[in-house]
Amino acid sequence: MKRDSDISGSMDWTIVMLYMALVILGWLNVFAAVYDENAKQSIFDLSLNSGRQLLFIAASALIALAITIIDMRFYETFAYVFYGIILVILVMVPVIGKEVGGNKAWIGIGSFGLQPSEFAKCITALAVAKYIGSVGFRMENLRNQAMLFVMIGLPMGLILLQKDTGTALVFTSFVLVFFREGMSPFLLIVGLCAITIFILTLLIPNPIYLHIAIGVVLLVLIVTGKKKIRRIILLTVGALLISGVIESVDYVVHDVLKPHQQNRIKALINPDADPLGFGWNVTQSKIAIGSGGFWGKGFLKGTQTKFDFVPAQSTDFIFCTIGEEHGWIGSLIVIGLFIALLLRIIFLAERQKNRFTRTYAYSVACIFFFHFAVNIGMTIGLFPVIGIPLPFFSYGGSALWSFTILLFILIKLDAHRGQVLQRI
Amino acid sequence: MNEGRKEIFQIVFVVVGLIFLTKLFFVQVIDDRYAELANSNSILRVVEYPFRGLIKDRNGKLVVYNTPEYDLQVIMKDVRSFDSAAFCNTFHLTRQELRKRFKDLKVKKKEYSAVKPMRFLEQLSAEDWARTQDRLDEFPGFYIQARTTRAYTTPALANALGYVSEVSKEQLKQDPAHIYKQGDYIGQSGIESFYEEQLRGKRGIRFRLRDVKGIEKGSFKNGEYDTLSIPGQDLTTSIDLDLQLYGEKLMKGKAGSIVAIEPATGEILSLVSGPSYDPNLLTGKNYSANFKLISTDTLKPLFNRPLMAQYRPGSIFKIAQAMTALQEKVITPETRIVCDRTIIGCHGPHTNEDLRGAIANSCNVYFYTALRRMINQGKANDPFADARIGLNEWDRHIHSFGFGNKLGIDLPNEKSGLIPTPAYYDKAYNNRPWKFSNIYSIAIGEGENLVVPLQMANFAATVANRGFYYIPHLVKGIGKDARPLSPYTERHYTTIDSANFNIAVDAMQQVVDAGTGQWFAHLPDVVVCGKTGTVQNEPLPDHSVFIAFAPRAKPQIAISVYVENAGQGARAAASIASLMIERYLFKQTRRQYIEDYVLAGKFLD
């Protein structure tokens, strides 16, 4: 058997190259986001985000190296241990954490902060993969399925308690993994329907019209279809259920969601209704991106992001800088790189012979996809404003390291795909 | 069974990417509205600071107002090379100072921003501002930001008004609604702090259009989305500014306090704390330096004595004792007690007085005996248990006068004083039994009793009202509403019958007409009722205390005066109180010799 640490030959270099391209582009954009032409700033200046980001990148390289050296069995063997540890840390965060921007989601080590919720993502991915890959696991078994939902629900709930809704929502992407591993699509369809109804409820101020619409559809179905008693009863019950859901959504939106959350959803539906109030972020973000045109204004030539018009221009709204300075072409390249990365991960996933690695690979793909879709969707006004970073682009150490760990564990596992027991 | 699911993932990924690219194509290439907005019409939010509410006295005289102050701000991005000699000349800086200011900006990394305005010079005076305004265009990147700071028409009332300064980091943390931003002003003590919510007003936001160079191009959509700043509400205080100034003049060079209240409403007419400071020192440019000086002054000018100084009340407490004993029927007004001076000492040439005479002569033995009867009423056979029952009854009455608890004045940092309860003595004696002989010094206002001058004045007002009081307060009208806050419009009754108060009023008149207070406190043309007190303070000289109200029939003013280390209550405190009453009722000083005596301040000779 080959030595475990020397895997350079069997490593998937395509994915490593994609990773490097994204990280370097991200770093340049972090610099551009706050660049001031008069200050003669250097991209290496440690008092700037870009200088610090370079340190984070260097640390990522070390982390990536460490991951490829550690024995591959380590990750699967200790998955549950890590999972237990991260749960304990998440419980403790509200007590020992320090407050950053209204969220108490950080743990301070000296002057330095770490965000445990970022690392919870890859640890949960390992734990879920280990559970699905374990002997005797059957997706059809409802107890097994329930266990999976508990596994993603625990960290999600704890992160919700820290009021970090964005990161908590990332955990819903595991449902896609379950689907890939055999869960019936029923839940996904129900989820999609719920979202559709949810948005319709928001769009139409008075739920009575929706109820009427459902009544009409019901009548049409009854009249046109076979007139069997059983069918009519089933349809009626179904319609009543949907009406009930609409009522409860209406209640949730107006009475449970906090005003700022309501506003984010309203801004999504009609950002022009109040461009200076709750639509401010999205309006400014769209102005910045839209002003880039086809070719962009050129590297460091953006104006919108630098004038503090765009909020959080180095972190959650980093895509604005790309859109403004590099135009549609730049957006095309970045989105293309992300899609290539996602498809490559799926490719790696499908060539695994072992269920643990495949499940893990799908988890990685789904987490990346969720971040990518929600973040860019939010900056261009297709999604409500949910504060989650764009992988490799948003400024910040915890997120970068967590994405690096996520990806490089996959690279490591994939490099050893030939030498694992077949268990599929 | 999972056939085809891989393809679903691949399709979803690609489709989402395509949706994004399509949407981006619309936003970036087809729709040129955004490019237009970005190029010529960037929207900027400008915060407009509200005017803080004004503070007036009861006659409408202005006490606190706002005066503009100007900060010089700099936006580093816009700074071009400029004539630094001219700059230094204009703003009275040396070259080193100028260089240091720029350096300081860079040192504060967190606040440093190339595009946001930062404060460069603080609080230019109005003259500086006028002089530099015309020359400002020579120095691109520098702007003047106007806001207002507090100013005071007189040097009086410092501790009651409090002061305003920049909101601290701790205060920002305790502001969950995020009303304040760093650099905002907030009331830090006194009325400014208590009525912060009413005074502060509401910030406005204007939306301005700016081009890429940062130059303003007018308002956005004709100001459709702008909100105007709402000025704070003006406050009308109950203070009589003339009386206040006179009181501060009389207290000059003395430590102590004067509290004058209108009995019929509980409105505070004057609230003097000595020594004090000039409130103008804690505003504007020299705030920090002056605050350091004032707060470290050994005479503690920031210590608001009327509310915070807890003293033993001394003989003025005998009035309350008399009321309590009458109410419990352990004495009648006609009860005579021989002044034998064996257990407790006394003073003056009296031997066998009734209640009125005992108050007029401040007989210690009389009130010692009255309290013994009150505490040991024989409701239990065990003397210890009996004392406990008696003291509980006594507490109920004394607390009803407002002693032993915070009254609830509309100022922060009020102290409650101390009226000992059975639980207090249990603790003091480590749960060993105690009885009357352990606690009798409370009879004459010495011992454990502590009151603040505000409570003494409130007590005088209660007697003046024959049995009730309104919580003393400083603000009688907020904005257009000519009423105080609701807690200050409610009558508080004591547990003592109104008839018993008439006896106290008789006795207090006798104190001024024929008793201990006759020389200094008696006023022509008006019946003053008062009570002296001389509080032991060994080894230093005694404290001088006097409470009074006038006129007897329809009292318009009730007052307490406490002068530290000034000897007998009949001298310093009685003189000051009578001068204050005279000034308030007759608007003049008719006995110049008393004023001279007070201003000279040699009470111990």
Annotate the secondary structure layout.
The complex is a heterodimer of chains A (424) and B (605).
Chain A: H1 13-33, H2 49-69, H3 73-77, H4 79-96, E1 98-100, E2 103-109, E3 112-114, H5 116-133, H6 142-161, H7 165-170, H8 174-180, H9 186-203, H10 207-224, H11 229-256, H12 259-269, H13 280-290, H14 319-350, H15 355-379, H16 397-415
Antiparallel strand pairs in A: 1-2, 2-3
Helix pairs in contact in A: 1-2, 1-14, 2-16, 4-5, 4-6, 5-6, 5-15, 5-16, 8-15, 9-11, 10-11, 13-14, 14-15, 15-16
Chain B: H1 5-30, H2 33-40, E1 42-48, E2 55-56, E3 62-74, H3 84-91, H4 95-107, E4 118-124, H5 126-133, E5 142-152, H6 158-161, E6 164-166, H7 169-173, E7 185-187, H8 190-194, H9 196-200, E8 204-210, E9 216-219, E10 235-237, H10 241-250, E11 256-262, E12 267-274, H11 287-296, H12 305-308, H13 317-327, E13 337-338, E14 352-353, H14 355-361, H15 364-375, H16 383-400, H17 422-428, H18 436-439, H19 453-464, E15 468-469, E16 475-478, E17 492-493, H20 498-513, H21 518-521, E18 529-535, E19 543-550, E20 557-563, H22 572-586, H23 592-600
Parallel strand pairs in B: 2-10
Antiparallel strand pairs in B: 1-8, 2-3, 3-4, 3-5, 6-7, 8-9, 10-16, 11-12, 11-20, 13-14, 15-17, 18-19, 19-20
Helix pairs in contact in B: 10-22, 13-15, 13-20, 14-20, 22-23
